Amino acid sequence: MKDILYKYMSRWTSLTEEEQQVIMEQLHIEQFKKGTVLFRQGEVPTRCYFILKGCVRQYSIDEEGRETTSNFYTEEQAIAVFNHHKPERLSDYTFICIEDAVMVVGDLETEQDMYNKHPQLETMTRMMIEENLGQVQEEFAAFIASSPEERFKTLQHRRPLLIDRVPQHQLASYLGITPESLSRIKKRIHQAPR
Amino acid sequence: MKDILYKYMSRWTSLTEEEQQVIMEQLHIEQFKKGTVLFRQGEVPTRCYFILKGCVRQYSIDEEGRETTSNFYTEEQAIAVFNHHKPERLSDYTFICIEDAVMVVGDLETEQDMYNKHPQLETMTRMMIEENLGQVQEEFAAFIASSPEERFKTLQHRRPLLIDRVPQHQLASYLGITPESLSRIKKRIHQAPR
DNA sequence: CTCGTGTCTTAACTTAAGTCAATGCACGTA
DNA sequence: TACGTGCATTGACTTAAGTTAAGACACGAG
Fold first, then answer.
1. pLDDT digits (tens, 9 = 90+) for B69-90
2. Domains and CATH numbers, chain B
3. How many CA atoms lie within 13 A of B182 on its CB side?
């Protein structure tokens, strides 16, 4: 399992084997059962995560009680809430494992210490976040520019496995549509392929 | 003009006056006329920007020739394209000044040098990007969960000045709707306020 | 001044997504 | 086994956004 992480670190840094070893020893890998909540909307997150295996859903419930899924995280994706700007840094979202999962767990308390000890780690983190930001901006731009049907097709193309991995009503909410519409879109696409 | 930047740096770092001075001397502030293109879709960006004054529109043109506005950047916002993951790191977007502008210009070539010389600068950059990522994720989540009309109201609330600052058809494309729909939405809202 | 261009608005019509309601199915439990 | 629950699908109807086309206005160039 750790080799996924090694591969990932090598891709982003020029750390030696030993340096990687040292860092790895301070990391903490944990198993999670399906249904486990990482942290809840309204709580202050104290940890961040990097998924080695499994799937996590991010959602929130608005004032009217409606539930919106804003993301699904899978293998090699990082989960962290950045809300330095919020007065009370409470999370707007709940994160829940919708499959059994294995993750690297980072403690936000000791984050800056780690960076001070291993400056390369801060560079790696910065680059990961930059990449992350780039991807989110790209997804956002694509989302803005497309209709619900196009959004579904894009997802089908970019994350084909996800569609069967998660409940359809959650997928619908992630696409910004109702479950009924998603059902009709799938029907339309199957009837008239191409 | 530079005081905006001082204020900003103080908010994010614990650099001394002198340290700030040193960094500032290496920064480069530039003026731009309305209509200036910072870089074009298909080009490799070599610089990044931080807006002190003015407004920049980010857009792209897809295969079918349709133009989509994916963002408007104004005072105290940073412009940078992160596409480490792309093979050819070409920008998907064009960035154009839609007002006369003043910006801090950063050279991407010397970025890592700067960080090595001033580790605090890397920390500041990381935190800025983290905050940026947090905001984009938040906006994205809100966008997914709302109808075109709600999206317009949210924008009216969060960036009221923007609505009069930019052409309506570009604003419509930024909201993911047609100019006609935007026109109708505004009419609806004015007729039945509240 | 006039013409052309770009921008915003309005109208008539089409289409797709939302809403509400019913059905069928899978699954876990009494 | 029978029942209840949650989920996906389907149908009928409503509504809002897309499409196409036309008109009004501002502005700059010739």
1. 999 999 989 999 888 777 778 9
2. 2-118 (2.60.120.10)
3. 18
